[in-house]
Design a protein that fits this description.
Elements lengths: L1 H8 L23 H13 L4 E4 L3 H6 L3 H19 L2 E6 L8 H17 L3 E6 L14 H23 L1
Parallel strand pairs: 1-2, 2-3
Helix pairs in contact: 2-4, 4-5
């Protein structure tokens, strides 16, 4: 994705990584340490284009209700806009043996709703039909290669659609 961005825009791109595994949407709410870390790190770099948000697997495992996830995602996006003056780009999560299709549907339906009714949530890539070789994360050599092609291209396509 960064290579595509550089080639298209002629400017370098950097990613400020603030995430770690195993978080729920509740961990990203204002006042929580993950949110505070993210906004602090983003604020330290100066110019931020967007917050790319790929999260939801733990909520699917836990069976978070669609309405609860949507409310939390809206709160997160609205506060990112207030605190960083940028939009949040959310992606739908991929299939996994770690959670049921029904629970994945609750998370992805909540994200789809936020895409449609919250101006602070940009439409990110839709990985709902993507199935990694491993259980939850991209761990095999095949997944890493597929991730570069599918995941990176998905993010780049979403960014082009939203910004250019």
């Amino acid at each position: 994705m960064a290579t595509q961005f550089l080639a298209d825009q002629g400017v370098p791109v950097a990613f400020v990584e603030a995430a770690h595994g195993g978080t729920c949407i509740a961990d990203w709410q204002p006042g929580q340490s993950d949110y505070t870390t993210m906004t602090g790190q983003a604020g330290d770099v100066g110019s931020v284009k967007a917050v790319l948000f790929q999260q939801g697997e733990s909520d699917a495992i836990d069976g978070t209700a669609e309405a609860a996830y949507n409310t939390s995602l809206d709160t997160l996006a609205n506060n990112v806009q207030t605190d960083l003056s940028v939009k949040l780009m959310a992606t739908k999560i991929h299939a996994s043996t770690e959670y049921t299709a029904v629970n994945r549907g609750h998370v992805n339906d909540a994200i789809n709703t936020a895409w449609g009714d919250n101006a602070n949530v940009l439409t990110g890539p839709d990985f709902d039909s993507f199935e990694p070789e491993g259980d939850l994360h991209f761990t095999s050599d095949v997944d890493v290669q597929r991730q570069a092609g599918i995941i990176g291209d998905g993010w780049w396509d979403a960014m082009k659609t939203e910004w250019y």
